Amino acid sequence: MAEKSKSKEEIAVKAPTSTMALLSLIFGILGLTALPLIGSIAAVIMAPIAKREINESEGSLGGEGLAQAGLIMGWVGIGLSAIGLCVFAIGILFLFGSAIFFSTAEDFSLLPLLLAMI
Questions:
Q1: Alpha-carbon gap, residue 108 to 113, rounded angstroms
Q2: Which residue in 50, 82, 88 sits closest to 67, CA to CA?
Q3: Partners of 17 in the β-ladder
Q4: Interatomic CA distance for residues 27 and 36, integer angstroms
Q5: Which of 41, 66, 102, 111 suits 60 as a labelling partner, its CA being 20 to 30 A distant?
Q6: Would you tell me how many other CB atoms lie within 10 Å of the CB of residue 28?
Q7: HEC string for the chain
Q8: pTM score, two decimals?
């Protein structure tokens, strides 16, 4: 089989990836792993900036998929963080509620202290 040689017009040049899109993806991943809330917020902020930068470049920048993935991971991270904070708050309330419920009459001297902590 003979291979056809490509002329200069046929060789496609891939546009460089937007730095903001790549950062949005990185922070989205970090928001789901090492930096739960901070990374997610950074990804959600950087993704629209990256998309606007890519659209304004008129094809000279790529990476719109990376920015979209960073945006999705950022929102998922924010949602999981919110659920985690709610579970933590319910756990704290349950802990204090059960401490008050199962205490004896002599232990009610601590009741104002426990209520002040809430």
A1: 10
A2: 50
A3: 62
A4: 10
A5: 41
A6: 29
A7: CCCCCCCCCCCCCCCCECHHHHHHHHHHHHHHCCCHHHHHHHHHHHHHHHHHHHHHCCCCCECHHHHHHHHHHHHHHHHHHHHHHHHHHHHHHHHHHHHHHCCCHHHHHHHHHHHHHC
A8: 0.74
Structure tokens at 7: 């002329």
Among residues 39, 38, 42, 70, the alpha carbon closest in space to that of 54 is found at 70
pLDDT of residue 93: 86
Please name which of 70, 72, 54 lies closest in space to residue 62, comparing C-alpha atoms. Answer: 54
> How far apart (Å, rounded) are the C-alpha atoms in residues 10 and 115?
74
Rounded distance, CA 74 to CA 60, Å?
A: 26
Tens digits of residue pLDDT in 44-74: 999 999 999 999 999 899 999 999 999 999 9
pLDDT on residue 86? 96
Which residue's entry shows tokens 């090492």? 34
